[in-house]
Amino acid sequence: MADIVRLQSGEKVDQWTVVEKLGEGGFGSVYKVSRGNEVYALKTESLKEKVKLLKMEVYVLKLANERKSKHFCTCEDTGIYKKCFYLVMTLLGHCLQDIRKELPGQKFSMGCALSVGIQCLEAIEELHAIGFLHRDIKPSNYATGREKLGELRRIYILDFGMCRSYLDENGRFRPPRKVARFRGTVRYASLSCHIRRETCRKDDIESWLYQQIEVTRGALPWRSLGDKRDEVAMFKVNIYIEDF
């Protein structure tokens, strides 16, 4: 992992002014930036990173924007500053995971869960329509729009660094690999992902189903197992509907 480039409040990144840091992950940071009276999100990634997750994110966002997909942020700008590649995009509200944890019982009402779930599923459909799998569907990769823009009830899908195209250059399905590396988050990963089988569109839907159970019930049955891949996989294989 390359060193994370850190920006200071008030620092100018080309036409964008850094307001504050919003978060930091293993591959980069996210900042709130401004241009005039408008605010946006700026994501960074070191140029030394071997796996260019942010470039994949830019590619997917631009394809979605061309199709006017309603559950995707707008890619406002990209560039290189100091020793990092950056992406400027729509600034969103809170992610579904943070919202869920603030609610009584850490769960949505049935009506809210259904409404949110439908929008999350629509977002996956839009992603699949441009030829990509997400491979990391989970509540923290969805967020609401901002209240100021009147978009609190709109759900956006996030983080496309682990996306993979399931079509070749001729628009045909790519042949599956004999063995595929684990991708995603253990709690929400599909069974195919656990057994290193090539994933496809139905695996994003399986992860969405686990997400829906969590936001409706407040927890998944295997939550206590943490990131123990094999144990979680066996739990998923042997689960019965009564366990939910």
Task: Give a brief rundown of this model.
The chain is of the alpha+beta class and 244 residues long.
Produce the secondary structure layout.
Layout: E1 12-13, E2 16-24, E3 29-35, E4 38-46, H1 53-66, E5 75-81, E6 84-90, H2 96-101, H3 110-129, E7 132-133, E8 142-144, E9 155-157, E10 164-165, H4 191-194, H5 201-217, H6 229-237
Antiparallel strand pairs: 1-2, 2-3, 3-4, 4-6, 5-6, 7-10, 8-9
Largest sheet: 6 strands, antiparallel
* Secondary-structure-derived class: alpha+beta
Number of extended strands: 10
Give the number of helices. Answer: 6
Task: Write down the CATH class of the largest domain.
Answer: Mainly Alpha
Cα end-to-end separation: 38 Å
- SSE string: EEEEHEEHHEEEEHHH
CATH topology of the largest domain: Transferase(Phosphotransferase), domain 1
CATH architecture of the largest domain: Orthogonal Bundle
| Shape assignment | globular
When the domains are counted, the total is 2
What low-confidence regions span 5 or more consecutive residues with pLDDT below 50? none
| Strand order in the sheet with the most strands | 1-2-3-4-6-5
Radius of gyration: 19 Å
What do the pLDDT scores average to? 94
Strand content: 15-25%
